[in-house]
Design goal:
heterodimer; A: alpha/beta; nine-stranded mixed β-sheet; B: mainly alpha; MetI-like fold; 19 helices; about 70% helix
């Protein structure tokens, strides 16, 4: 009997330790980013100084996106995250499902203080990012690709292309390569004929595509000459230029841009502190600091006006880069994502 | 193991059960129950029933033939508005969208028009808001979702669907993808398991026959892939296998090939990278089994006149088969669940089923579909593991 008592004691102890582990009392405010250089930039621009000035300790975590992760946490009663950086589809699906808190926009300085695309009931824009054409300036000398039609032109620019292995972005780029103006891309994709047309255009380039799944593959694919040009986000190539002495170049014509948002999880036990941190991260003077740590588009209007123009080069904040650009239509992808992903997976395997 | 089947006195048997009970309860609560709950989403379908209770009743009463009755339309219109105001329309909208793409925006737009004062008491009223209300598609989608159970997800996972007349039909050819991905998943896993057997058996044999002092450093080499992250390993394979990579350069330098071979971003790359990662899972159980085979057995065979090959085939090999089977089953099972490695080193035709399951779980939140795909992966797997266990047992020890 004694051993049973001991066993029970151990069990109780384990249970209480486990309970403490998940209790919010012991864990500091937790912010979740996308890891890598983007998370480094946020830490250096915001998190360290926030903790120093407010005395609120911060804990970091990172994730690779996907609102299902958050649904699992909220539904399963896991309260280990407070603030998360999410993509637009995650924001839409999570907000309508009640996974995120509604933001107090008056406290953030009002909706007009931000770019329209950065304003949502449940989220405020953290940064603006794009997918553009990237290529190696040492390999393509002279004039490089200036459009998606050029990206498709394997006679003028022989060699393989890197593209992201998703219908998202690929279908949009295909239509633009086929001459559809940016503002007509989604109306076209909403028709069955438009989808067929995009896939027919993708057929043309398919034998010359290396499909990548993680953006971290892009500098390697370009650097090793596996591909001659690639769909890419600008940051990785700019960082490679700075740190590895590369000569990667970007072309912004017909880029697709989108916003990442800060959200507070519905079951966050530290709402007040989370709100405080989000206000801190979206204030103009603080956002301007982010631009010096990573080439990215700022969401605060005042920050965009005041930031050093040199820091806008190679970012979506430079108006010259955004002529003919296409804003990702997350509502389209929420509705058509399942169907088009299925079709894309069937197509890409053929 | 067969010895443990011997009869136990009743009390001792209960004692055993009692000893195992805490672990079993823990597994049940933390593993089996959540898995079953998740898998049940493949057939349980109560979103519409819960949020549109009156519509669900009306839908079940309607025989589905011809035009829907106006009373049904009025009920649906009322509950569209009610759920829109309550902020729960998304659950029905997303569920119907799985069956008929476009339902989501149809429902939201209709809700807005109804709220703004458009009439919605008849089918014709609704069709004036959007002509799709006058067509059978959306009504069939609602009928398929009227709960409490559905065939939709399992059919979709088999590239089938219910049409407006409730007949099971194939999805359009350009949408049919899952049957191919399943076959591919099982094929890749089987080939990786075979490659592990071919490469791992000699290594395990070497490890088992060496004295421990020499075997241990080799064991560490075997375990090395465990300690590197998937991304780092993949990057390393890219450096080795890419067009201008180490392997191609070496082969070209020695003159074996003229032009670089495509060794990565295709199926070959997947086989190479997955075999590398999974090899330890094969070697270790086999090594354990080989260690337990007394070296005297082979010597006895030779002393009885068997030539080395004969001794190996009829004395040593049969004794190692349980280890081979165990290792191969572990490798095969783990391989079935892979998706990061194939995504990073494979090409377009190398996506495995777990990637689809992850997509539906994380990106699109279509957990019914994720559950159906998981179920269709799990059932053949359980059968195989069961068959494998029987095989291991029947091998003469």
């Amino acid at each position: 009997m004694k051993s049973w008592a001991r066993l029970l004691g151990i069990a109780a102890l384990t249970a209480s330790v486990a309970a403490c582990g998940s209790s919010s009392e012991l864990r500091p405010l937790t912010v979740v980013g996308w890891g890598g250089s983007s998370q480094d930039a946020h830490r250096n621009a915001y998190w360290t100084s926030f903790s120093r000035t407010t005395g609120i300790p911060l804990r970091e975590d990172s994730w690779r996106g996907g609102v299902g992760v958050i649904r699992t946490k909220v539904v399963g009663g896991d309260t280990s995250w407070d603030i998360v950086q999410v993509e637009t589809e995650d924001l839409i699906l999570g907000c309508e499902e009640g996974l995120f808190q509604r933001l107090d926009w008056a406290g953030l300085g009002g909706r007009n203080a931000f770019l329209p695309a950065a304003v949502h009931d449940c989220g405020v824009g953290a940064m603006l990012w794009s997918y553009v054409i990237g290529y190696d300036g040492d390999r393509i000398k002279g004039p490089g690709p200036k459009s998606w039609a050029d990206f498709w032109d394997v006679k003028r620019f022989p060699g393989k292309r890197g593209m992201r292995k998703t219908p998202k972005y690929s279908l949009e780029f295909a239509l633009m390569a086929d001459g559809v103006p940016a503002d007509q891309v989604y109306p076209t994709l909403r028709t069955p004929q438009g989808v067929d047309r995009a896939f027919r255009k993708l057929d043309e380039i398919k034998p010359n595509v290396i499909w990548w799944s993680s953006i971290s593959q892009v500098p390697d694919l370009l650097g090793s000459r596996e591909v001659v040009m690639s769909v890419t986000s600008p940051g990785r190539l700019i960082v490679a230029n700075r740190t590895e002495g590369r000569n990667f170049k970007l072309d912004w014509h017909g880029n697709i841009f989108a916003v990442d948002y800060w959200v507070i999880l519905a079951n966050s036990p530290r709402k007040a502190e989370a709100t405080q941190l989000i206000r801190y991260m979206t204030r103009a003077e603080n956002q301007m600091r982010l631009a010096s740590h990573i080439p990215t588009g700022l969401t605060n209007v005042e920050a965009n006006q005041r930031v050093d123009p040199k820091l806008k080069l190679d970012t979506p904040s430079d108006p010259a880069n955004m002529v003919g650009a296409l804003e990702l239509d997350a509502n389209f992808w929420v509705e058509y994502g399942d169907q088009l992903t299925q079709r894309f997976n069937a197509w890409v395997a053929r | 193991m067969p010895g443990s089947r011997a009869k136990l006195p009743g009390l001792r048997r209960w004692w055993r059960v009692a000893l195992l009970a805490p672990l079993l309860l823990f597994l049940l609560a933390s593993f089996v129950a959540p898995v079953l709950m998740m898998l049940s989403r493949a057939v349980v379908d109560r979103d519409l029933e819960r949020l549109w209770p009156d519509s669900a009743v009306a839908l079940r009463q309607w025989d589905g033939a011809g035009a829907p009755p106006d009373a049904l339309a009025a009920t649906v219109a009322r509950e569209i508005v009610a759920t829109r105001q309550a902020g729960t329309l998304n659950q029905v909208a997303n569920r119907l969208n799985y069956d008929m793409v476009g339902s989501r925006s149809l429902l939201y737009a209709t809700a807005d028009r109804l709220t703004a004062g458009s009439a919605g008491t008849t089918v014709r009223d609704l069709a004036r808001i959007d002509p799709r209300w006058g067509q059978p598609g959306i009504w069939a989608a609602m009928r398929h979702a009227d709960g409490p159970l559905t065939r939709h997800y399992l059919l979709a996972a088999l590239d089938r669907r219910l049409d407006a007349d409730d007949r099971i039909v194939n999805v359009p050819a350009e949408q049919a993808v899952f049957a191919n991905i399943y076959l591919r998943t099982f094929k890749i896993s089987a080939i990786v398991a075979l490659l592990c057997i071919a490469l791992g058996y000699p290594v395990a044999y070497l490890l088992a026959s060496l004295p421990e002092r020499k075997a241990n450093p080799l064991l560490i080499l075997v375990l090395l892939p465990f300690w590197t992250s998937a991304l780092v390993r993949t990057a390393a394979w890219a450096v080795l296998l890419q067009t201008n990579g180490v392997v191609n350069n070496a082969l070209q330098t020695v003159g074996l090939i003229d032009a670089p071979l495509q060794l990565i971003y295709n199926r070959l790359g997947v086989y190479i990278a997955m075999t590398h990662v999974l090899l330890p899972f094969f070697i270790l159980p086999l090594y354990g089994v080989m260690k337990g085979i007394p070296p005297t057995a082979m010597r006895a065979a030779s002393s009885l006149g068997a030539p080395p090959l004969r001794a190996f085939l009829s004395v040593y090999l049969p004794q190692t088969l349980p280890g081979v089977a165990a290792g191969a089953i572990i490798v095969f099972t783990l391989a079935l669940g892979y998706y990061v490695t194939p995504a990073l080193v494979g090409g377009g035709a190398d996506q495995m089923i777990s990637a689809s399951i992850a997509f539906y779980t994380n990106q699109s939140l279509n957990w019914g579909m994720a559950a159906a795909l998981s179920l269709l992966l799990l059932l053949p797997l359980l059968l195989m593991v069961f068959a494998g266990r029987t095989m291991v047992r029947t091998v003469p020890a």
